[in-house]
């Protein structure tokens, strides 16, 4: 059985991620919220070792997103996110690779549905 401290940590992290997502553009927020919700549900009954890895990775995600959401950082870079290290792909299972590809397709579809103004102006 999981300790109450562990459950509390998971809940705090879960809430933090959703608070951080509030600062994202609308289409990224929906995508991020849905993905986080599904991942936390999927790992609800994982073993202790997987839970530690899961919490570590999502904590890193929250820290990186918080750094990127700082107003000064956004003014400098005007982007959110970072590129995935290609070496990480070597450690992923087939299911994880499929999931990553589906996430990529969903993100690309969101971008194509709402093209930036500059692209629309160029087409005219």
Automatic annotation (TrEMBL):
<comment type="subunit">
    <text>Interacts with the iron-sulfur protein subunit within the SDH catalytic dimer.</text>
</comment>
<dbReference type="GO" id="GO:0034553">
    <property type="term" value="P:mitochondrial respiratory chain complex II assembly"/>
</dbReference>
<comment type="function">
    <text>Plays an essential role in the assembly of succinate dehydrogenase (SDH), an enzyme complex (also referred to as respiratory complex II) that is a component of both the tricarboxylic acid (TCA) cycle and the mitochondrial electron transport chain, and which couples the oxidation of succinate to fumarate with the reduction of ubiquinone (coenzyme Q) to ubiquinol. Promotes maturation of the iron-sulfur protein subunit of the SDH catalytic dimer, protecting it from the deleterious effects of oxidants. May act together with SDHAF1.</text>
</comment>
<protein>
    <recommendedName>
        <fullName>Succinate dehydrogenase assembly factor 3</fullName>
    </recommendedName>
</protein>
<keyword id="KW-0496">Mitochondrion</keyword>
<dbReference type="Pfam" id="PF13233">
    <property type="entry name" value="Complex1_LYR_2"/>
</dbReference>
<dbReference type="GO" id="GO:0005758">
    <property type="term" value="C:mitochondrial intermembrane space"/>
</dbReference>
<keyword id="KW-0809">Transit peptide</keyword>
<dbReference type="GO" id="GO:0005759">
    <property type="term" value="C:mitochondrial matrix"/>
</dbReference>
<dbReference type="GO" id="GO:0006105">
    <property type="term" value="P:succinate metabolic process"/>
</dbReference>
<comment type="similarity">
    <text>Belongs to the complex I LYR family. SDHAF3 subfamily.</text>
</comment>
<keyword id="KW-0143">Chaperone</keyword>
<dbReference type="InterPro" id="IPR008381">
    <property type="entry name" value="SDHAF3/Sdh7"/>
</dbReference>
């Amino acid at each position: 059985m999981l300790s109450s401290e562990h459950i509390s940590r998971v809940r705090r992290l879960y809430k933090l991620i959703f608070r951080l997502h509030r600062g994202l553009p609308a289409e990224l927020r929906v995508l991020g919220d849905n993905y986080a919700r599904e991942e936390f549900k999927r790992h609800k009954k994982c073993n202790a070792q997987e839970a530690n890895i899961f919490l570590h990775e999502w904590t890193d995600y929250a820290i990186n997103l918080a750094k990127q959401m700082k107003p000064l950082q956004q003014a400098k870079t005007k982007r959110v996110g970072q590129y995935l290290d290609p070496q990480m792909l070597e450690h992923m299972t087939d299911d994880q690779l499929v999931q990553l590809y589906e996430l990529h397709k969903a993100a690309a579809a969101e971008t194509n549905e709402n093209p930036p103004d500059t692209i629309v102006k160029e087409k005219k």
